[in-house]
User: Which sequence fits this backbone?
């Protein structure tokens, strides 16, 4: 991809973990504070700032920025600020497709550079993830994969806005846990948490995987299956338990990956080792490593 840098002063690039942040709030004041902090920083850096609204009217976003002292007319006229909706972005094809979204981020960043901006940052309201929308059930898969497939590769910053009033608490815990950086309100650790690895392709599973966490395991398996990297690792050092059905889902995802490289299982719990001994066919696409 061609990179055409803008004329602004250079800034140190954030780490991939810092580029993708979950932001949790439960009232309009918190929302506005986080919004203005993010947008002001982007404008000061000469970046293009995009806001993808869902539950919030775009006019209200602009009004909150104006109330917070942001020169909204100037930013809009320079093309440095845009406010659109989830229906125009994440859901533009009538549903949500994580694979398509990965490529759209690269295209949007190229457009920002071509317009003379120093980079791009975006806020996305994620409340659409709990509605009856085709592909919405793949939101956790997307949040897991995007770290390595987008932020580890592109100078892009994004904050995912989670309104506590609009999402079930348990689901919110899991979604925010898929980010390595957090702002706003603190949430409880879910029964099973899945997060991307910070420095190489793969995911960390912590807690307990069983019947009650089947949807989380399904999303983790989808992330393993869809990961673009040729080699993927599952760090299981903090996983206390994983049942046979969860192992089967992960093994099936590993077996269906293109390329043939086994998925690495780092420090799996004793229960998983026993299951692999009992059902060796599950381990044909998995490789246990203890280092």
Assistant:
């Amino acid at each position: 991809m061609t990179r055409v840098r803008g004329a602004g002063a250079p800034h140190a690039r954030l780490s991939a973990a810092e580029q993708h942040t979950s932001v949790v709030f439960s009232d309009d004041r918190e929302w506005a504070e986080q919004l203005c902090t993010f947008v002001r920083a982007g404008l000061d850096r000469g970046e293009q700032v995009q806001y993808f609204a869902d539950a919030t009217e775009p006019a209200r976003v602009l009004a909150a920025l104006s109330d917070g002292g942001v020169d909204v007319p100037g930013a809009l006229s320079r093309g440095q600020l845009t406010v659109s909706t989830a229906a125009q972005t994440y859901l533009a094809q009538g549903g949500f497709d994580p694979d398509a979204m990965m490529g759209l981020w690269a295209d949007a960043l190229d457009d920002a550079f071509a317009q003379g901006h120093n980079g791009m940052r975006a806020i996305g309201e994620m409340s659409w993830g709990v509605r009856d929308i085709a592909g919405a059930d793949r939101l956790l898969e997307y949040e897991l994969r995007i770290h390595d497939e987008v932020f580890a590769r592109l100078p892009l910053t994004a904050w995912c806005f989670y309104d506590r009033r609009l999402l079930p608490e348990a689901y919110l815990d899991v979604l925010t846990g898929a980010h390595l950086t957090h702002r706003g309100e603190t949430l409880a650790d879910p029964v099973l948490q899945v997060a991307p690895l910070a420095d190489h392709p793969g995911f960390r599973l912590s807690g307990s995987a069983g019947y009650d966490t089947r949807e989380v395991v399904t999303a983790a398996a989808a992330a393993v299956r869809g990961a673009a990297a040729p080699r993927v690792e599952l760090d299981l050092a903090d996983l206390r338990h994983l049942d046979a059905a969860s192992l089967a889902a992960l093994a099936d995802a590993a077996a269906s990956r293109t390329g043939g490289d086994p998925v690495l299982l780092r420090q799996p719990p004793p229960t998983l080792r026993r299951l692999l001994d009992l059902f060796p066919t599950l381990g044909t696409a998995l490789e246990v490593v203890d280092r």
